[in-house]
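Subgroup meeting minutes
Present: P.N., E.W., G.H.
Scribe: E.W.

1. P.N. recapped why we're keeping a running log of single-chain structure predictions: easier to compare across weeks, and new members can see raw inputs and outputs side by side.
2. G.H. added today's entry (96 aa).
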Amino acid sequence: MVNFLVQINKIGNSEREKKYLTDLKEQEKVEDIFLVLSAQKLMAKNGPYWQLVLQDKSGQMQARIWSPLSLQLEEIAPESFFGLEEQCKPLDRSYS
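Output recorded in log:
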């Protein structure tokens, strides 16, 4: 699994060249669509958040969707596709 955490603040899709998860570097901006391998809605001190595992043909990556954006998403189905726009940040293992 890639050792970055993508904290998602905006959902979208992009027409840029495909960037695979294993190619991402810390602080690099991600704008692409990935498969949702798993999705769990959990509770933090400031409200609910989503914990995701995203996948493409190169590997997997953990992602979080924090409040207030998490409040807009009632369900994220495993094996669905998810477009995201955000910057890669080091994985904080305390959330794993």
